[in-house]
Design a protein that fits this description.
- It is a single chain.
- With 301 residues, the protein is an alpha/beta fold.
- It has two domains: 3-73 and 259-292, Nucleotidyltransferase, domain 5; 84-251, ATPase, nucleotide binding domain (Nucleotidyltransferase, domain 5), CATH 3.30.420.
- Helices cover 46% and strands 13% of the residues.
- The protein is built from ten helices and seven strands.
- It has helices at 3-24, 44-61, 70-76, 121-131, 139-147, 171-182, 188-217, 232-244, 254-257, 261-273, and strands at residues 35-40, 65-69, 89-94, 99-106, 109-115, 221-225, 248-250.
- Strands 5-4-3-6-7 form a five-stranded mixed β-sheet, sandwiched between helices. Strands 1-2 form a two-stranded parallel sheet.
- The longest helix has 30 residues, at 188-217.
- The radius of gyration is 20 Å and the shape is globular.
- The model has no long low-confidence stretch (mean pLDDT 95).
- The chain binds 5'-O-[(R)-(carboxyoxy)(hydroxy)phosphoryl]adenosine and zinc ion.
- The site of 5'-O-[(R)-(carboxyoxy)(hydroxy)phosphoryl]adenosine has 17 residues, from α4 and α5.
């Protein structure tokens, strides 16, 4: 991806997209009570476009606006569902840019218990998919290929599970896949078997760390969100592990697991309802620690 080209595409597409969304919802700009926009973390060019449009539109419409943390969006996405989890809960955030385990006491009250020290889970999926000749972003296609793979042929390591702690490291699995492929003829069966072994290793590692975090915190509920949360094997394996611990698991529907505007609107809405609003000047951040967010009144610490 070329960040500058992506930003220019945002400029071209954002206003037509907003008009299309309002038309689909049978609403007009005058129906908008407030505007939430993503202010980070991420690529600064794309963030600037969203923030400038969001903030300017709010000024023009005379409504408040609020900056939203992208990962808070993922974290609160299951609140859009009918079986929304009550606070507190443990969240496993697994996207293309982040892998985090977060103890959530309320909106804005987040403790990061562990995170990836190198590649995020989705990034590892995408890089391994590319080794297997799949187009970017290859996570979903790698998962489809793994369905046809033989689970018994290769066994990949479960990184960092043999020592205490809740951090992750996934970059070694991509290297492991590369080395495994290097010694073998490049045929469809081998690619499927490698995909299967890779997926099982990532899923098992995520489940082992979640189980550990649930045991350590005694939190009664688990939320899994972010693009990799769409993965079928992860959902199945996590469901079995959570049931054994009498923990309920909550996922957003697949469309709200991967990046979407609804989750950002929801997070912003909670902050706007609590009275948050911002001055005309805005700031976007390439890096933004989740724990630095302002907790809403009533969110336990
Ligand atoms: O949350 P997301 O849409 O964007 C970021 O904030 O990064 O996550 C995208 C990531 C990509 O790496 C994509 O390959 C991965 O989620 N992904 C999957 C699946 N669906 C999306 N990985 C594995 N299995 C899937 N079914
Ligand atoms: Zn995301």
């Amino acid at each position: 991806m070329v960040p500058e080209l992506a930003s220019r595409d945002h400029v071209r597409k954002l206003i037509p997209l907003l008009d299309a969304v309002l038309a689909e919802a049978q609403m007009s700009r005058g129906d908008v009570d407030g505007i939430a926009y993503t202010a980070g973390p991420g690529l600064v060019g794309a963030l600037m476009v969203g923030a400038a449009v969001g903030r300017s539109l709010a000024f023009a419409l005379g409504v408040p606006s609020v900056a939203v943390h992208h990962m808070e969006g993922h974290l609160l996405a299951p609140m859009l569902e009918a079986d929304a989890p009550a606070f507190p809960f443990l969240a496993l955030l697994v996207s293309g840019g982040h892998t985090q385990l977060v103890a959530v006491d309320g909106v804005g009250a987040y403790r990061v218990l562990g995170e990836s020290l190198d590649d995020a889970a989705g990034e590892a999926f995408d890089k391994t998919a590319s080794l297997l000749g799949l187009p970017y972003p290859g996570g979903p296609q790698l998962a489809a290929l793994a369905e046809r793979g033989d689970p018994g042929r290769f066994r990949f390591p479960r990184p960092m599970t043999d020592r205490p702690g809740l951090d992750f490291s996934f970059s070694g699995l991509k290297t492991y896949a590369m080395n495994t492929l290097a010694g073998l003829p490049d045929d469809a069966r081998t690619r499927a078997d490698v995909a299967r072994a890779f997926e099982e290793a990532v899923v098992d590692t995520l489940v082992i760390k979640c189980r550990r975090a649930l045991e350590q915190t005694a939190l009664p509920r688990l939320v899994v969100s972010g693009g990799v949360g769409a993965n079928r094997r992860l959902r199945e394996t996590m469901a079995a592990a959570a049931e054994a611990l009498s923990v309920s698991v909550h996922y957003p529907r697949v469309a709200f697991c991967t990046d979407n505007g609804a989750m950002v609107a929801y997070a912003g809405c909670q902050r706007l309802l609590a009275g948050a609003s911002e001055p005309l000047a805005f700031e976007v951040r390439a890096r933004w620690p989740l724990e630095s967010l302002q907790a809403l009144d009533g969110a336990a610490r």
